[in-house]
Amino acid sequence: MHEVSLVESVLDLIEDSARREGFSKVKKVVLEIGQLANVEPEAMVFCFDVVTRGSLAEGAQLEMFPSPGLAWCTTCHNSVEIASRDMHCPLCGGYALQVTGGTDMRVKAIVVED
Amino acid sequence: MCITCGCGGDGATFDAGSHDHSHDHHSHAPGVSASRIVEIEQDLLSKNNAFAENNRQRLAARGCFALNLVSSPGSGKTTLLVETIKRLQGRLAVSVIEGDQQTSQDAERIRATGAPALQINTGKGCHLDAHMVAHAMERIPVPEGGVLMIENVGNLVCPAAFDLGEACKVVVLSVTEGEDKPIKYPDMFAAASLMILNKCDLLPYLDFDVEAAIAFARRINPGLQVIQLSARSGDGMQEWLDWIEKGVVSAQATRPASGYVRVSGTSARFHR
Ligand SMILES: Nc1nc2c(ncn2[C@@H]2O[C@H](COP(=O)(O)OP(=O)(O)O)[C@@H](O)[C@H]2O)c(=O)[nH]1
Ligand SMILES: [Mg+2]
Ligand SMILES: [Zn+2]
User: Fold this and answer.
1) Which residue among A31, A108, A112 sits closest to B36, beta carbon to beta carbon?
2) Is the CA virtual torsion B144, B147, B150, B156 positive or negative?
3) What pTM was computed for the model?
4) What residues does each domain of chain B span?
5) CATH top-level class of B45-271
6) Domains plus CATH for chain A?
């Protein structure tokens, strides 16, 4: 359940931003979660509700959108999209894939009230 | 105040990770304030990664080779560390950071060998993070030209995401766990540089397929190195010790040449 720490990081980044931008209430949080980031969206929502209780993000809506898993196939030399790490190349069937994208987790933006 | 992060903690108790949130409920008059969008564009792990980078620079300044040992509980990490330290005695200095949810039993097992060890108890936390390790590194020697072993909390999932500043993650898989673990928990095997297949002394009694386990792991991580050993019988240990010594040599070779390293974000200086 490292989702707890991930959500704590989200709150941390929001609180930093609140100090800079001077808002007092967060209504919505938009995250980008890579398909290969090993994160359970349902667990994120659950942890978000618990961790943000009593904070400036209490009750905020959590929106997550996935970014695709990408890999470079070292057999057929193509960039391909993959849904999990345990996948072969959809073009040549080889397993020698180097993951090039879809592992990041980012706070994109938040909707706030002053 | 701590120079690593200015967190104010003296690090005396290490049940880290518990950020207390106050539970006062803010009340806001609805409808009086207008909404606006604030762009953030920051990685969720950015803070952890900044601590990890600081740790990495502190280690580099001392030419210390740091390993992050990850596995499910009971694969034999502590046993492997104890046997490793015994065999390195008089050749390489080793310090150990032990991560467990509870108890300091593992640190005590390490200290019995004579090596310095610090226990971090994560409480409910399922992994070590770079901030905890930064504090731990203030409290035990970071051996110059030696090795820092970090035994992570037993968990094949969560520790994969958290860089501690180590040179390499080493995943320990014991042969009693089944050969399919690399494809069931791919992130850990993707994050590791070396897989140790432990408890090979038990192979005659099991139907564990060594070749299949290695093939599954390399399917996830084609560049993964593999060492088969038994921490119990000592078979295969020499290959592991050689691997460590090579790591120490390269940590020494890449050590910054200047007299000190300025670590970003702190005023700390490290002399050599
Ligand atoms: N047969 C056998 N048992 C081992 C070996 N290494 C560790 N063990 C046993 O596995 C159990 C768990 O070991 P421990 O080092 O505490 O695992 P950890 O949780 O990964 O630190 C203990 O009973 C060890 O004695 C090995 O190479 N062979
Ligand atoms: Mg242990
Ligand atoms: Zn291909």
Assistant:
1) A112
2) positive
3) 0.87
4) 45-271
5) alpha beta
6) 3-113 (3.30.2320.80)
